[in-house]
Specification:
This protein is 47% helix and 18% strand. It is α+β, with helices and mostly antiparallel strands. Mean pLDDT is 78; it is low at 40-64.
Length: 268
């Protein structure tokens, strides 16, 4: 290989690794159709044909941040968007989607500092995630102070959430015990790699957002798919959710979406 070719290869590599160029490609990905976070390492650990493509691309482009890697993942992002736009965006079966979030976490973490914040997140993970595994769920991705998980059955999701909330009540960082709001929704999102996309994912996230200061919220869709007596067996009862006067309207959800709040049954 002559010096000219070697110099050209070195130049291409330097451009590919240029932080400014990588940032520019990522900026383009953010405005492209589809999910610009596709390719996050946390979203590349499950089954699926798209995931297989992503893994091959990731091995080919190596693990370092590079423009060529972002371009390849951008192509997968567009592919996912095409599937959605051509009517193949919905999945072939129902799954139950769970979103969790810690109430007031950002405010607390600013005062607590990095060390306590990391300690809290580790303890929260140990409290929340085992119940998901035990009840047949799968953590799709970690979202800072929360998770997105999927289950084959809504009653399993509810039992996992119930176990997680009980375990979370035992977490204490210098007198601070976090509160978790939860949203549960059943629908037919499409699996792309180990991630899930579609309107039902948005609905599940919006259901969680109605949870205010640590409530357990569920859509009518999930409730209807549970075996009769499930709530009573778990010790919960359902109350209709009514949006507060000053609460923002939920965007990106069906007009007829019905949300309920699950509370401890009076007899318990």
């Amino acid at each position: 290989m002559n010096s000219y070719v070697t110099s050209a290869i070195d130049w291409v590599r330097s451009v590919n690794r240029s932080p400014a160029f990588v940032a520019a490609v990522r900026k383009v990905r953010r405005v492209l159709p589809g999910d610009p976070s596709f390719g996050d390492p946390l979203s590349m650990a499950g089954p699926g044909s798209a995931l297989a493509v992503a893994r091959v691309a990731d091995r080919f482009l190596d693990d370092e941040s590079g423009a060529s890697r972002e371009i390849g993942l951008g192509a997968l992002q567009l592919w996912q968007a095409v599937l959605e736009s051509t009517g193949r965006g919905r999945g072939e079966r129902d799954v139950t989607i769970v979103f969790t979030d810690l109430v007031g976490f950002s405010t607390w973490s600013l005062l607590a500092g990095d060390a306590d914040t990391l300690t809290l997140l580790r303890r929260v993970s140990r409290a929340v995630e085992p119940g998901i595994d035990v009840h047949g769920g799968h953590v799709v991705k970690r979202l800072g102070d929360g998770v997105m998980a999927v289950f084959h059955r809504p009653e399993n999701a509810l039992r996992a959430v119930r176990a997680a909330r009980v375990a979370l009540a035992e977490v204490d960082i210098d007198g601070y015990t976090p509160r978790m709001r939860v949203g549960i929704h059943t629908g037919s999102p499409r699996q792309i790699g180990s991630d899930w996309l579609g309107v039902d994912v948005t609905v599940a996230a919006r259901v969680m957002e109605t949870g205010g200061n640590g409530n357990l919220m569920i859509s009518q869709s999930s409730l209807e798919r549970m075996p009769p007596g499930t709530l009573e067996e778990i010790g919960l009862s359902a109350r209709p959710y009514r949006r507060g006067f000053f609460a923002p309207k939920l965007n990106g959800v069906p007009e007829d979406l019905r949300i309920l709040r699950l509370v401890e049954s009076p007899q318990r």
